[in-house]
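Let us practice reading a record.
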Amino acid sequence: MARKILPKLFLYAMLFLLPRGIPAQSQQPFLLEDGQAWAGLQVLVPLRQKIDLVLSGSTRLGQNVSHWVYERGGTALLFRLGKHFTLSPMYNHIATQPLPGRHGRENRFSLDNTFNFSLRHFILSDRNLLERRLQSPVNSSRYRNALQLSRPVKMEKISLLLFVSDEFLYDWKVNTWSRNRFSVGVSKDLAEKISLDLYYLRQNGKSSNVPRDLHVIGTTLKIKL
């Protein structure tokens, strides 16, 4: 009798568990790719001839531009060391909620050094960024390298700055190059000390359980006081 009942109980248990597994699988594409909108603000406050205070913040709409998934606020000091080199220590506080029911907080300390060179009609910049990320459950460090090529163009009475950039990120938490961000965009002066960047960014990532591949439309408003 027991030999007849046990197979039936096993079958009923499998049928009961099967529907619960299907929604988890259906969410997997959402975990891998997302469409987002990013908005940033940067305010530059001169302190001395070659030292500026930088106040910045940004927000991101994710989950296919339906929910707030990221908020950041921070400050930095920008040192202009020579004609082609800048050095900037910075601090940022970051709040994230990339998925329903998942929340994170981070205190990030960074050191940014950037080289800029003129190549005829082009401007080449090489940005190197070291980050120390204090977050739960594990603190980590990350290195970021971004190369950007830009060119000023003028069409009738409109002056623009076209740019293309590619950034690689190495994460010591997983000991691998974890992300690549390619972006292309344009910068336009709105007033004497106000400019706006508009760009498209494509992120490809790995070793992450948050949306790792992104399509992003972003803007950054820059103000110099």
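A brief commentary: Helices lie at 2-26, 28-32.
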